[in-house]
């Protein structure tokens, strides 16, 4: 099994808080760097932030927060004031401070909108997500092909990395002229 990574946040007199897991060390490091930068600027939060191998025995905070105002609003309502790092800090680490502030402002706007406005917004967002799904699936298929060409011949592992189904992976590889079930070809490439 390949290691996954976590961002660990330590504060004096508190238990360490693991955030993750991240499949790629680079993503964990980028997240840690952003969170550390925000916390260093803060006068209210003294904390140490670093990356480590994720421990599957520990519960981790999810680094990928939703960015839709209705989903983020639901999480914000459930958030305890003692939660650290809080949603906004984690959103800043995920998106960068400027974008996080824009997203957070939309949460407030969403709560004030009327039912008709919300339905219009949801319809527009659904349309955007449909096109993003098509774009992201294509990008993930291309990544899967490049992973294969780079020497990763384990379809299950490629599926874990890309979140593509086995059927989709086989189709993408075959479309690129690769026969994933031909073990002789895999050894000779």
Count the DSSP helices: 8
Say how many strands there are: 3
The helix content is 55-70%
Stretches where pLDDT is under 50 for at least 5 consecutive residues are: none
Radius of gyration equals 20 Å
Query: Rough shape?
Result: flat
Q: Which band does the percent of strand residues land in?
A: 5-15%
| Main β-sheet description | 3 strands, antiparallel
Helix/strand-derived category reads mainly alpha
* Count of structural domains: 2
What number is the mean pLDDT? 86
Order of helices and strands: EEHEHHHHHHH
Strand order of the largest sheet: 2-1-3
- N-C termini distance: 24 Å
Keywords for this entry:
single chain; 189 residues; mainly alpha; three-stranded antiparallel β-sheet
Task: Give an overview of the whole structure.
- The protein folds into 2 domains: 5-112, no CATH class; 115-188, no CATH class.
- 59% of the residues lie in helices and 10% in strands.
- It has helices at residues 25-41, 69-78, 87-95, 97-112, 115-149, 155-162, 166-175, 183-188, and strands at 5-10, 17-22, 48-53.
- The protein has a 3-stranded antiparallel beta sheet, with helices on one face.
- Helix 1 (25-41) crosses helix 3 (87-95) and helix 3 (87-95) crosses helix 4 (97-112).
- The longest helix is centred in the last third of the chain and has 35 residues, at 115-149.
- The two termini are 24 Å apart.
- The mean pLDDT is 86.
């Amino acid at each position: 099994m390949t290691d996954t990574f976590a961002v660990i946040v330590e504060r004096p007199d508190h238990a360490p808080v693991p955030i993750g897991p991240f499949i790629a060390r680079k993503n964990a490091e980028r997240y840690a760097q952003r969170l550390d930068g925000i916390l260093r600027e803060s006068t209210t939060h003294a904390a140490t932030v670093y990356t480590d191998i994720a421990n599957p025995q520990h519960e981790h905070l999810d680094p990928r927060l939703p960015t839709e105002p209705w989903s983020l609003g639901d999480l914000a309502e459930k958030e305890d004031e003692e939660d650290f790092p809080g949603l906004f800090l984690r959103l800043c680490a995920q998106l960068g401070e400027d974008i996080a502030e824009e997203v957070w402002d939309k949460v407030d706007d969403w709560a004030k909108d009327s039912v008709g406005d919300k339905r219009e917004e949801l319809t527009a967002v659904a349309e955007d997500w449909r096109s993003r799904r098509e774009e992201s699936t294509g990008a993930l298929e291309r990544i899967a092909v490049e992973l294969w060409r780079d020497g990763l011949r384990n379809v299950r592992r490629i599926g874990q990395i890309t979140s593509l189904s086995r059927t989709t992976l086989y189709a993408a590889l075959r479309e690129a002229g690769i026969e994933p079930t031909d073990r002789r070809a895999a050894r000779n490439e």
